[in-house]
Amino acid sequence: MDGCDTYRINRMIQDLNGDPVARERHCADPDFTYAAYGIDAEEQALLADGSIESMTRLNVHPNLQMKWVFINAKGPPRAPGPLSAYRDRLLASPAKDNR
Amino acid sequence: MGRIVGGFATSHVLFDPAGAAEQAERVFAGMMAIRGQIRRLAPDVLIVASSDHLNNFTLKHQVTLAVGVADSFVPLGDMGIPQDSFRGHRAFAEAFARSAATDGFDLVQVEEVRPDHGLMLTKLIADPHGHVPTVPVFINSAMPIPPSPARAFRLGEALKAMVERDRPQGERVVVVAGGGLSHWLRVPSEIKVADKFDRHILTELTEGRARTFAQIDNPTLRAETGNGGLEVASWLFMTGALPEGARGEVVYYEAIEQWESGMGGVAFHV
């Protein structure tokens, strides 16, 4: 693991975050992604662990750590999320807004 | 001349209320109170400032300060936020970029951006149905070298100067900042919420000492509030756009351990 080359891993995650097709392929075949970005076995193990400690060791940006967790949860990364508990009131018609 | 008639700031996340229902409800009520205050100010233009979360501005091109100049924007849709487009304000945004360029800021002008929850939850709190043209301003605190609090404050001053010099007579502008307060996002930390320092920030800003508080450097702010707390820079941008020494009110504050976040909101009527 080369500490001077950590952009490679960050780049992989931000590319996946911005590309639904690549994300889908990654979920089906992570080895393809790892080969494309030159992720070695030690890095793969740390990424698979996904803990804050492991990803900090890889110098993954905190926001990209979050995205990595979402991507590998295999859930739709932009599906309705925690906003759902408030959504109706947040988007209420003006007459219902707090004045 | 135009006039900045109000400044607001609010945290820009909401989480599952389970386990913190009463606090969550107070936070939401605070956000809705901010909405009501903004509506009563009847703004002609909203300036919404927040950090992007490496969705639009990534490590590929590390943009710290940017303004959205497009005629309309489509939200990214993260956090379940609807992807309904909202109006921008090209004339205002370009005037700001032009003015800022003579005032020490080379703002990145952005035509194509899909605002994430940082900007969008703030926008939805302020103007849920897109009635008010909105200029997104990105104070990208998540960048490896983020803008300093002092620089964010100074950019707010540049905005105020532009509004008062270049905008049409009677134009009413409200500035709304999103982000903070303390949270440690995916970094090893013993601390989850810095209740005491959050309250210090709220006091300093609402008692008219924002300029002084903005002298804090990023390493100190990060140590006190976590990497997520750097988003307070957007709040300082907002206070920089207010009259010197403007005093405001704390609308809400909750240290929510379950959310690992200090949640706060402030309001200034000027």
What this model shows, in words?
The complex is a heterodimer of chains A (99) and B (270). Chain A contains 7 helices and no strands. Chain A is mainly α and 99 residues long. Chain A is elongated and about 55 Å long. With 270 residues, chain B is α/β, with parallel strands linked by helices. Chain B has an 8-stranded mixed beta sheet, with helices on both faces. Chain B has a two-stranded antiparallel sheet with strand order 4-5. In chain B, strand 9 and strand 10 form a beta hairpin. The longest helix of chain B is centred in the N-terminal third of the chain and has 21 residues. The radius of gyration of chain B is 17 Å and the shape is globular. At the A-B interface, helix 1, helix 5, helix 6 and helix 7 of A face helix 1 and helix 3 of B.
Quick overview:
The complex is a heterodimer of chains A (99) and B (270). Chain A has one domain (3-92).
Strand and helix map with partners:
The complex is a heterodimer of chains A (99) and B (270).
Chain A: H1 7-18, H2 20-28, H3 30-37, H4 41-49, H5 52-57, H6 62-72, H7 87-90
Helix pairs in contact in A: 1-2, 1-6, 2-3
Chain B: E1 3-10, H1 21-41, E2 45-50, E3 65-68, E4 72-73, E5 86-87, H2 90-101, E6 108-110, H3 117-126, E7 134-139, H4 149-166, E8 172-178, H5 195-206, H6 210-213, H7 218-225, H8 232-240, E9 249-256, E10 261-269
Parallel strand pairs in B: 1-8, 2-7, 2-8, 3-6
Antiparallel strand pairs in B: 1-10, 3-7, 4-5, 9-10
Keyword list:
heterodimer, A: 99 residues, mainly alpha, 7 helices, B: 270 residues, alpha/beta, Protocatechuate 4,5-dioxygenase, Chain B, eight-stranded mixed beta sheet, two-stranded antiparallel sheet, 8 helices
